[in-house]
Amino acid sequence: MEDNKGNHMTRRDFLNQAGKVGGAVAVWGAMESLGLIGHSLVGAKEFQSPKISDLTAVNKNGKKIIILGAGIAGMTAAYELRKAGYECKILEARDRSGGRNWTVRNGTKETELKGYKQTAKFDKELYMNAGPARIPQHHVTIDYCMELGVELEVFSNSNEFSYYYQENAGPLSNQKIRKGTVRADTRGYISELLAKVSDQAALDTPLSKEDIERLKDFLTRNGDLSDNLTYNGSSRRGYSELPGGGHQSGKLDEPYNFSELLQSGMMNHFSGDYSYNQQPMMFQPKGGMDQIPKALEKQLPGVITFGAEVQEIRQGPDNVRIVYKTNGKTKEITGDYCICTIPLSVLKNISADFTKPMKNAIKSISYAPAGKIGLQFKNRFWEQEDRILGGITTTNMDISQIWYPSNDYLSQKGILIGYYNFGQNAIDYGNLPHSQRQARALAQGAKIHPQYNNEFESSFSVAWQKTKYSEGGWASYSSSDLKNYYPILNEPQGRIHLAGEHLSYLTGWMAGAFESARIVVSRIHEEVLKENKVSSKAG
Amino acid sequence: MEDNKGNHMTRRDFLNQAGKVGGAVAVWGAMESLGLIGHSLVGAKEFQSPKISDLTAVNKNGKKIIILGAGIAGMTAAYELRKAGYECKILEARDRSGGRNWTVRNGTKETELKGYKQTAKFDKELYMNAGPARIPQHHVTIDYCMELGVELEVFSNSNEFSYYYQENAGPLSNQKIRKGTVRADTRGYISELLAKVSDQAALDTPLSKEDIERLKDFLTRNGDLSDNLTYNGSSRRGYSELPGGGHQSGKLDEPYNFSELLQSGMMNHFSGDYSYNQQPMMFQPKGGMDQIPKALEKQLPGVITFGAEVQEIRQGPDNVRIVYKTNGKTKEITGDYCICTIPLSVLKNISADFTKPMKNAIKSISYAPAGKIGLQFKNRFWEQEDRILGGITTTNMDISQIWYPSNDYLSQKGILIGYYNFGQNAIDYGNLPHSQRQARALAQGAKIHPQYNNEFESSFSVAWQKTKYSEGGWASYSSSDLKNYYPILNEPQGRIHLAGEHLSYLTGWMAGAFESARIVVSRIHEEVLKENKVSSKAG
């Protein structure tokens, strides 16, 4: 490989070069084109951060960009544009950055729409990630953590030691059963069923006789089957008495009855862990998810105006003008472009110079209701007593999930996520005052962890659909929305560009906000470069 | 529930009480008997640490216990016995504690049997766990970490983003394929095969019609099947182009051909992750596995004599006498009991007052050959370029496995485990001088990670069968050994008791050493209490 001066470059030289120019993602794209990594990890278009030299080359300074919202998308846009010297101003309605990336700590205050007020009484060192809480390996979020120096630790998304617990689901109802036990039994039975008919099952397939033997061999291993291809239980499902020292050889239990397992529906929860965005390993920033917005904010000194509630979004042929309210006063700010990251659920009520189809698109998209409660306990009984270190218990009760903390294992106290639910369950919880949400979460959780009754200390709940300036968990597109409205939302409206998780195919993930911000940054930067060329030719 | 004074105790009172008396494991046992935890997690016999009051109650001080070996078993025995005031002396041949729990760092020196000498040149903040490297949630090792204040972090044992790479295995040979992709395709195909014949397959089973429908429903979810019960690929296997912002909706690839997958044998590696000792979540101490022996050693001031090589193990009716060599001088020490934790592979060559059947048993047990190499690289290309954060790549090459570090994610440098192998592969590597082990590990690893060629800095290898004072990875019992020799090894020889991972059903795990030590501690303590009672009656 040669560089542009004809010198031979080592592969590493090339990649270092690419890294300097375009950041980690450029390296990654370059890697892929060199065949150094397996495929399936790179997005379609590579992002190149705007560079200071882009603008000086055409003898012109950057433009002024007004950004609405200091969430992930807004701050990323400012961070990237400032790399090329653009002047950026962010208006943020809240008194903090991060938007839905919100870590609740001791003293956090929030008043919900319709008036429920809470103050978090958690211990000082504890926290609850009320919004995003986990990062998959392939998301661009990881690149930004690397670039911004945000330290990561494993988020335990899938722990075989956590429980399934089902109600009204046949003979296994109201029993907590470890996920690994249900998986081992299910793998055993389906392997047995298929192994016994594999000659037949393969009739319609192009499998050779040798392949069928390989299949049977695999099924035997996969299900831990006996020689007669029968599943009789397995040490993989756990023991009634663990193997230990001396003569303690361990005692196995009988597997659960397959029909009872099928009736329980527990195995229908498996596929949650299979999705590409939820496969292990997953990660969280050390010290709370808000380490990401905090790291972005640190890069933006003097850029953000907090407590600035946008009232009007206006534009003329040459500029944008934003009217906002702060400390009871109405102010305005003008700039060359506007990047609007306000959620559509909020934006629909703001007066703006958008076309009619755009206004219609904005008000047509629904947002997912989503709720979480953090429950602080005096003791980590789930670790000390249930021996569950991280992970998620899954149930068909309306709390849906219990999340065990993925940090500070074996320490004294901890905060569980006592429910994390969507849809109707989230609406139901959201309609309750906080005290009743807490009571309901405790009552259901105590069926799985009776220790709830004695160990509970304090709680904080969030109902995203009732949270001011968010009004929903994430944009929820139907397939007809994607066809009818999504293309319109993605088109700039003159000098106003929308960005955020809602302008991505990764709705509900921070990565969607990061990627959307990059697209808008590239689009504005290209436009400015084009304008500059035209004007420098003209001049 | 009432305490022994007839007062009502809350459940928590009771457990706190149990905790004070018997430590975390007693709490756990008590929990189980209260029905507070799911079953399958508690060993047969609960361990009670000896207490100072046990001995003062019979007006007699503790005995002197000579312990051979400052590994996990030896130090645990001393730690527990000293809780009741026993005088303990540990003789340790090495100049460090921990035995096979060995973290190699900058400056670590080791000369193998037959003479190969190495000095680790790793960077100061980096390390390699040469022996045990991961802890399952249910092992007693976790209890000791809690009791001793050893902080844990997740060991990424099972990462869907790491690779399978097979040679001479059909059309998919010499390709690195992400584990999650192979799993998604395999689940897809076997779900399809079974779904299509499930009516038939269930003929011989007691499944009802409703159960068969539930089974089909499960298989459809499990395999991500289409409406016609066919597997046509799935987003779970990854993308050729990831979904992202704006119009980047993501592009899927075709699944691998099922016959080619079967020929590759990749799926036969799945079951490694299913074993009860390897299911997620797994853990490692922050800062290296040797944080465990260091924490134990801290509890044993003045107890351990390092550089003391045991020459003879002698006993009379009333005492034990150990002859050892230190700094070229022969010394001896006497005591009331001896706990010998020396591996059988080493013990067989030490002169000892054992019965003939015991000597025969000791020399009959083989030890597993096991080898590891740590490779330090200038850059964490596996994170930055392959996007693998932790986990293990699995291959049929003789390196067998590549382990990515589970700590300090996104930092600059890192140490990979370049091979971890057993049996003949371990013997083959062990027979090479270090430079050739390194060359072989680099050549094979570079097939998966071509970055090996430019990024490698330094290495350190261990061949446990050639490591002085260990001479093997762990005791490897055949079923006839368990029948013929294991019972003999577990019997005390007069005043001498054997302990260690080799006296457990958890060979190769630290938990085996911990549990075995507890058994010997209880046995000696009971004997002393009995003796004391007899002598106090006599006096």
From TrEMBL, chains A, B:
SUPFAM superfamilies reported in the protein's UniProt record: FAD-linked reductases, C-terminal domain, FAD/NAD(P)-binding domain
Residue intervals of the Amine oxidase domain: 72-524
Protein name: FAD-dependent oxidoreductase
One Pfam family matching this protein: Amino_oxidase
Alphabetized InterPro entries for the sequence: Amino_oxidase (IPR002937), FAD/NAD-bd_sf (IPR036188), Flavin_monoamine_oxidase (IPR050281), TAT_signal (IPR006311)
Coiled-coil spans in chain: none
